[in-house]
Request: fold
Amino acid sequence: MTAADLGVMGGTFDPIHLGHLAVAEEAREVLGLDRILFVPASQPPHKPAGEVTPIEHRLAMVELAIADNPAFELSRVEVDRPGPSFTVDTVERLAATGDRLTVILSAETFAELPTWHEPERLFEAARVAVAPRWGYPAPDPEWLAEAFPGREILVSYLEGPRLGVSSTALRARVAAGRSIRYLVPAPVEAYIAAHHLYAPMTSLARRPASP
Ligand code: ATP
Reply:
């Protein structure tokens, strides 16, 4: 089998939203990638346990969100391993198949790269695509040249899209009883409602009592 060009979109996806999907599609098109792997984190290293929705729900929502795009694929590589995963370890595992990888990061995640676990190893296994994110400073190529000299050639900058959607804001909207229609794919919206995700106990209490 010939090697493929794969994009790697890691995240908590709590929940997955149109910002994630639009960035993935932009990277696929602009960089000519064959497929995009969505890699949900089982327990993100930077978020305390218990604060994140159980992985079964986050996996189900990613599956629903990408079902209509044959170039999008769910990867369970982080889920099927016990404990938190470092992105560099995940990328090295994925690269072991011989495929060429491009890790897709938004500008704010990219700016945190030097604080990651062994970030230099990332550039040994993959290229990086940086997407702008509404509300955050633009990616800075000069900063990259200082932080990771010689690696500039491995980094591409996407021009868009700039959708001001975040999982945090979506969770807050649901908790406040507000609509998330048009901010997540319709099947994800339906899943969140059916499983009462992100709704506080008070919103359950507010429902009319059964006769
Ligand atoms: P939270 O608000 O819970 O931190 P999030 O919306 O940032 O979540 P993650 O699952 O943590 O979502 O994001 C995965 C990756 O997608 C990260 O690199 C993140 O910066 C990026 N990302 C998320 N939303 C957007 C967006 N609207 N535009 C560009 N990049 C985004």
In short: Residues 11-14, 19-20, 23, 105-106, 108-109, 131, 133, 163, 165-168 surround adenosine-5'-triphosphate (CB under 6 Å). The first strand starts at residue 5 and ends at 11. DSSP finds nine helices and six strands in the chain.
